[in-house]
Amino acid sequence: MKFNLADVFETVVDAVPERVLLSYEGTSYTYQRMDELTTQVAHMFAAHGYGLDDHVALFLKNSVEHVTSLIGLIKVRAVPINVNYRYTDAELEYIFDNSDSKAIVVELPEHQQAVARLLPKLPLVRSVFVIGDVDPALTQAVEQADVEIVDFAEHTQNSTERDFEPRTGEEHYVLYTGGTTGYPKGVVWRHDDFFRKPISGGNPYGDARADLDEIAREVKNFPSIAPLVAAPLMHGAASYLLFTFIALGGRLILERDFDAKKIIENIPRDQTQIILIVGDAMGIPLVEEMERQKDTTDMSSLFSVTSGGAIWSKHVRDRMLAVKPDMMLRDNFGASESGNDGEIMMDSDGNLSVPPTEKMMVVDERFNQITEPNEPGYIARVGNVPLGYYKDEEKSARTFPTLPDGRRISVLGDMGYLTEDKHIVFQGRGSQCINSGGEKVYAEEVEAALHSHPAISDALVVPVPDERYGQRVGAVASLREGAPEPSLDEVQEHCRETLAGYKVPRSIVFVDEVKRTPAGKADYKWAKSAAAPV
Q1: Which tens digit of pLDDT belongs to each residue from 294-330?
Q2: What is the Cβ-side half-sphere exposure of residue 385, based on CA atoms within 13 angstroms?
Q3: SS3 for 424?
Q4: Residue-range domains of the chain with CATH
Q5: How far is CA 321 from CA 164, 297, 326, 443, in A?
Q6: What does the alpha-carbon distance between residue 501 and residue 506 come to, in Å, rounded to a whole number?
Q7: 304 strand-pairing partners
């Protein structure tokens, strides 16, 4: 059968209605209550003319309404569009326009003001759903455009009956990914592919579920696991986790913002079992709080920290285990364009690899499979991959080619090679590869070494122009609170403990804060500017 995400959600609701689905800043909502709310929200969208294939932008921070909007839209077969709430007006205009969004859901006054400024440039937008009070700037803007303002609270007047049209699993789920450079791209998933890959067939701990009956049967026997999403819901990893644990009947813990201090303090209150982070950007402040609170906060319920979407260095993991040795650390390999590719392992030297799998292989530039060990190439994902990028046939053909045997693959620029025992070693993202005199240096590897320096809180590595070698390795870093600024010689000496000489940074610039997206993704464009010689 083909799975639809709303059908999966409703199946779990009917199986375990009294379980808690969401704990938001201390308030809990059962599966039954969330089904009622999301059904009312779905009817609200339908009443204003939104349904099959309509794109609706969610310009929201984490909230209960963010969750109900997301699920409400897929109930009526509409397509939620995730929006990075820290985008500039130019980036927001691009994503609203590129996504063909017909409506926008918004909350904060400053976000409403941004929408107000952009409405004259967005002829497709017919409705703005506002959570809370309407900002005067938005009221004034809609008076000059053929756009309605809808009070989001209107949903409470709607029915809780699931009188929706049948779903097929062919519906689309679009996930905009900003990556590290350029404007965001809309990754178009079919619901069925989304279920089978990003959310692991409804069961990341074993065999994929065969049908809705199996989901209903198994979820009753599966313990209610409580993961906390440290990333914002507009990030791919967060939405993957939301739907993964819904399929398992789990309890999602959500905070408004990423606040490492609150996350650790609230472990006893929420009985947090798993924390999902995005690499070192979240891992470093989190482990610092674990160290500060190890004697004052009961962390006994926490049994795992899981990362995805960015580099998670061995040094940060070791510090976490020093605080809580019995904890399981898991590093997921994946992307918006591929979903969950499985766990990536780290050896004693810090090399990252995945065990042999039918879901991944290494290919050359012409997409021919590489079978010889130690021959570098591109890591390709095989099987349930996205249909492509929204409205970009050229990039779609380049990223999601079809092999001669009919298999579809996803090639994202991750570089790697096979070992003798067929493990795939991850080298780094090709787009962040620095070519220094013919030697290739992958930024992530150097960043991991820098993160292990006792004085450095965060760091990004970028190419810096060099007359002799073309490019040299440059770094931009921030300091831990109270730490003295180390000299370049000291940083280089530290890096040489784990890196070959040609990979060691030749320059480093210290800044107050290393800029990243709200989801912890690197801002390499900013880093290149900050690292450039004056």
Answers
A1: 999 999 999 999 988 777 878 889 999 999 999 999 9
A2: 26
A3: strand
A4: 31-189 (3.40.50.980), 356-422 (2.30.38.10), 431-531 (3.30.300.30)
A5: 48, 16, 7, 25
A6: 10
A7: 274, 328
